[in-house]
Design goal:
Number of domains: 2
Largest sheet: 4 strands, mixed
Shape: globular
Strand content: 25-35%
Strand order of the largest sheet: 22-23-1-24
CATH topology of the largest domain: UDP-n-acetylglucosamine1-carboxyvinyl-transferase, Chain
CATH architecture of the largest domain: Alpha-beta prism
Bound molecules: shikimate-3-phosphate
Length: 450
Amino acid sequence: MSAHGKPLPLRAIPCGPLSGVAEVPGDKSISHRSLILGALAVGETRISGLLEGQDVLDTARAMRAFGAEVVDHGGGNWSVHGMGVGGFAEPDQVIDCGNSGTSVRLIMGAMATSPITATFTGDASLNRRPMARVTDPLEMFGARAVGRSGGRLPMTIVGAFDPVPLRYELPVASAQVKSAVLLAGLNAPGETVVIERTPTRDHTERMLAGFGARIAVEEGAAGRVITLTGQPELQPQEIVVPRDPSSAAFPVCAALIVPGSDVLVPGIGLNPTRAGLFATLREMGADLTYENERDEGGEPVADLRARFSPDMEGIEVPPERAASMIDEYPILSVVAANARGVTVMRGVKELRVKESDRIDAMARGLRANGIDVAEGEDWWSVEGHGAGGVPGGAEVETRLDHRIAMSFLVLGMAARAAVSLDDGAPIATSFPTFRKLMAGLGARIEEIGE
Ligand code: S3P
């Protein structure tokens, strides 16, 4: 069942070459942070290129509930009139974050050091996901959290009256947890320190610095040590959101596996904490080049050019790369099925607590489509059939997970027989233009029952 209405069964039919220019939407992580930091600044932040996917719209609605004036000016241009650090009002309704872990975890952090109470809920997927990883450190600031068993939503956070700053070493490599602690630290007096052994996406740190917070990052033997000075006055910004590398992954990977393809994906954010997939694909022998490399709004950006790559080989993906491509393993496994030999992915147990258990969802769907998959708690491997060798022909379950849905549609584009989904509706959470964009390149995705 889809989160926001009835299920949308879809089918991807094997297609001819994909070609053209794929303009993917704005970065999801940066879009969420633009709205939240805009609400914590004093005055008007303007945002262009905002991703208008359901997850980000849920963050926008939540920021309004906490008192910010959030205006949609059309065409991806938005403005946020913020109340300043510590200025959140108490919402009079439950905050529904839909499918979005980023929304709920970052917003819990942003409100937890203010003397207000808020209750959060989500869809069936989000209400299964672990929240203790965020509420544990928030309680150390002085907040209280009461949720369902296993630290799950729905959950009420009673913000700290007298927050104390924190020194916190992240027990999991999670940018969402890191960001929740930093956003909570904004309204605590003194210095909040976060230590991460494995670097995760650093958009929050970069953007906090851009908004005028005092934040220092040191790379040491223990990892990255991030020190934030609390209670700054954040200055409103003009933000240009780069295009999302996690969304770019789908047309890029489709072009690599559909014979004869040649696709340009312009303006993609290539922050090193996000670009692990592209390095992996190149190691596998993908014909993937970076053109016109530049810097936009403090983030490295390039145009990606992907061409059909019949000679890709399976590799061992290094576990230390996992954080920089954590959302890309589902689509990587589709490329792996079209490469020669075995691809092994280790150090990926976080995949089990995403919008779905992504190892299980992909393993079942790939097996149903004729691909051998082996798995353990924190690793999995995919046996490649080489270019054009994937049988396909099965229907798979999306499990309220947008990336599972898009990955299997890409599988179907290059398989011998069509691949169907029980529900493509979740794609709207992160990439509402996916079907139109892929159709423009030459893909054939149809609604089942049309
Ligand atoms: C995100 C961080 C990642 C990622 C998610 C977005 C973010 O989650 O999977 O899609 O914007 O901070 P974790 O940090 O929990 O790995």
